[in-house]
Automatic annotation (TrEMBL):
This is Glutamate--tRNA ligase. It is an enzyme of class 6 (ligase). A motif ('KMSKS' region) lies at residues 242-246. Monomer. Residues 324-467 form the Aminoacyl-tRNA synthetase class I anticodon-binding domain. HAMAP family: Glu_tRNA_synth_type1. ATP binds at residue 245. It catalyses: tRNA(Glu) + L-glutamate + ATP = L-glutamyl-tRNA(Glu) + AMP + diphosphate.
Length: 470
């Protein structure tokens, strides 16, 4: 057999910059990225910025920022659709010259009358332009350019996710390619951009499935290569309804603010509608090796915040301690009202193995670290205050003496000293550990209390206990 002549795989992600990177868009970008990398192809980015009125300032930068945070690096320069309007119009005029499109002088009133008649007959509106087979329109009047779409037969798309989907050509009307002011429509721009970018596979949300038939009619009229289509079901909220702002976090950057690690969000999004056997924790390298369109399900996936929390906890525990320190130092500074010095950063690094074992997100990790940097006497929250009420204060005093008598200030030695005390006075270990935790951290929750003692050191630990006993 000779070498394969199949074209290089090229995918694209084409968001509209309307404010933020939607979580569904982030998953679409991920699927396109992984498919391209799996096949040794290219992943390209196109910003569909033709709707200038709906583009808030900084929206494009927000998309770049979110994709960068997720590590979804595109190949080459990003393409901006608005800047290519002249090229889009050029293609429409070429099609017009070949007879694949025509000038239409229908007035807004005629279009409105047609819609009203269809509504009265309770039928879908199918435009039938009287100008489709005429060229004697008024030269001094504005016109649109319409595609001369086929009216007979049907079109079947072999969709890689949805399977074969067929639409009768009679259901598709002659869509507008150029508006009366000469500007290109979205449908034209998408087809021209995909062709010029060499896109071989169009992987996008299934809300674009209907568009595919109209775009395919234009592609065929132009005689261009047809892409492979894969329309992925949308993400739904936990209640099964289409994901919206009422469900909470819908923007990718919101998850960053929630303290989610980018690799955790990537793993979670990958498993939203795609699977590889029973694998739950999937690295970027494994995802590139395994990803295929056959693994994408046809049913909409539901957001599950608890599952994301679980996956994020796994990645926190696996993440390098120094990286976690870099990530949470700004969060600690914001909560603590001051920046950490070098010795405090070193203390945080030493404490990280214990701290990260219990945290579900970076914000929680930062909050759990605050006790390390409080100045004496440390403040107590309401639950901690209750834990130090008599008779707990007497137990704290006895624990202080037992700790002070220990020559070895290490977690195991301190635990042995407190266990011996508990057995001697006939109480459970927790009865002593809880007031100790309150005095040392100001909270009712913390890493293991003997690890806290070890990390704080002898002088700081005994000092904090003495503050509360006074």
């Amino acid at each position: 057999m000779g070498a394969s002549t199949s074209p290089k795989v090229v995918t694209r992600f084409a968001p509209s910059p309307t404010g933020y990177l939607h979580i569904g868009g982030a998953r679409t970008a991920l699927f396109n990225f992984l498919f391209a990398r799996h096949h040794g192809g290219e992943f390209k980015l196109r910003i569909e910025d033709t709707d200038r009125a709906r583009m808030p300032e900084g929206a494009t930068e927000a998309i770049f920022d979110a994709l960068g945070w997720l590590g979804l690096q595109w190949d080459g320069e990003a393409i901006f659709q608005f800047a290519r309007a002249a090229r889009h119009a050029e293609v429409a005029h070429e099609l017009l010259a070949k007879g694949g499109a025509y000038k239409c002088w229908m007035t807004p009133e005629e279009l409105a009358a047609g819609r009203a008649a269809a509504e009265a007959a309770r039928k879908p509106f199918r435009l039938s332009s009287p100008w489709r087979d005429r060229s004697d329109g008024p030269a001094d009047q504005p016109f649109v350019v319409r595609l001369r779409a086929p009216r007979e037969g049907a079109v079947t798309i072999d969709d890689q996710v949805q399977g074969d989907v067929t639409v009768q050509n009679a259901e598709l009307d002659d869509m507008v390619l150029l508006r009366s002011d000469g500007t290109p429509t979205y449908m034209l721009a998408v087809v021209v951009d995909d062709h010029d970018m060499g896109v071989t596979h169009v992987i996008r949300g299934d809300d674009h499935l209907n568009n595919a038939f109209r775009q395919l009619a234009l592609i065929r009229a132009l005689g261009w290569p047809e892409p492979v289509y894969a329309h992925v079901p949308l993400i739904h909220g936990p209640d099964g309804a289409k994901l919206s702002k009422r469900h909470g976090a819908v923007g990718a950057e919101t998850y960053r603010d929630m303290g989610i690690l980018p690799e955790a969000l990537e793993n979670y999004l990958l498993r939203l509608g795609w699977g590889h056997g029973d694998a739950e924790i999937i690295s970027r390298e494994q995802a590139i090796k395994w990803f295929d369109l056959a693994g994408v399900g046809r049913a909409p996936a539901r957001l599950d915040p608890k599952k994301l929390e679980h996956i994020n906890g796994h990645y926190l525990r696996e993440t390098d301690d120094a990286r976690l320190v870099d990530l949470i130092v700004p969060l600690i500074g914001a909560q603590n009202g001051r920046n950490l010095n070098e010795s405090e950063r070193a203390l945080l690094l030493r404490s990280m193995p214990e701290l990260k074992a219990r945290a579900k997100d970076l914000n929680e990790l930062a909050s759990a670290s605050l006790f390390l940097f409080r100045t004496r006497p440390i403040p107590l929250d309401e639950r901690a205050q209750k834990l130090l009420e008599p008779p707990a204060s007497d137990l704290l005093s006895q624990a202080r003496d037992a700790l002070a008598a220990s020559a070895d200030w290490s977690g195991p030695a301190l635990e042995a000293a407190i266990r011996e005390l508990a057995e001697r006075i006939g109480v459970g270990l927790g009865k002593i550990a809880q007031p100790l935790r309150a005095a040392l951290t100001g909270s009712s929750t913390s890493p293991g209390i003997f690890d806290v003692l070890d990390v704080l050191g002898r002088d700081e630990s005994l000092g904090r206990i003495d503050d509360q006993l006074r």
